[in-house]
Design a protein that fits this description.
By secondary structure, the chain is α/β, with parallel strands linked by helices. It has 13 helices and eight strands. Strand 2, helix 6 and strand 3 form a beta-alpha-beta unit. The structure holds glyceraldehyde-3-phosphate. It comes from Sphaerisporangium melleum.
Amino acid sequence: MSTLTTSPAEIASSNASLRAFLHGLPGVDRVGADQRAAMLGTRSIKTTAKAQAIDLAISMVDLTTLEGADTPGKVRALCAKAVRPDPGDPSVPKVAAVCVYPDLVERAVDALAGSGVKVASVATAFPSGRSFLDVKVADTRQAVQAGADEIDMVIDRGAFLAGDYRKVYDEIVAIRQACARDAASGGEDAHLKVILETGELATYDNVRRASWLAMLAGADFIKTSTGKVSPAATLPVTMVMLEAVRDFRDRTGRVVGVKPAGGIRTTKDAIKHLVLVNETAGDDWLTPSLFRLGASSLLNDLLMQRQKMTTGRYAGPDYFTLD
Ligand SMILES: O=C[C@H](O)COP(=O)(O)O
């Protein structure tokens, strides 16, 4: 693929030029993508490689709670689990991040202080994204001020589907600016994950276009779904996004991460995703700094399978705390 000779700002100088660029990307062969993802999903991994894959998957989990009924107590318990997933086995790695609503960020920051586990906050009128830009910017700023290390924003799917790419681009740029940490605090800017909500984008071509749009606008990560819309993280959609980050690096030199989220519940699902990463974007992406699994209830299955591999038997159903 050829190097991008025009800057993202030039490409986005008007909706027409952005549209020309996005619609000039090669189309996705839907049947071929479904078949390839299904074929990669049948690869089996055994013994040592499986044990390593389970630990890698644990270290990539964004342990998530995004319920209206979330409480400070639930977030505290989740944070304890994030740092020490199995209190009986200190060799289990900690997860990558805990993902919560903005008003619970402070609780998570307190509970995770010094642990190395990041705090991710959803923002921008999650999950619908339907609000005013200044409300979305304020939502983001408050989460960053409360100490969020990562912001998971949603795109305006209505604008995207109406072909108003420039609006989506401008909004991502504005949210990226809102991720900047106050210079006086000396901290790093919050990383920006851009949720495409692929279940609402209708076609794989749109998934590819939305991936590029988010990356051109400055996303650090592209994320499939909110977990509130079905389908969420399917293998072919994740594959299309992995191809996009691979091609984006080839054409710009910038490396963007990928986060499938929503509906990933079993060790089998997690391992299928890792195979996909390896075979599509390559092993550079097999690290928590470039690949995450957003999930509310995957961790216990990973822990159960890990224990089965170590001890030869499953723990009782009450052994692990609830996700
Ligand atoms: O970002 C993560 C998702 O909201 C989690 O979805 P899930 O509850 O289907 O695992």
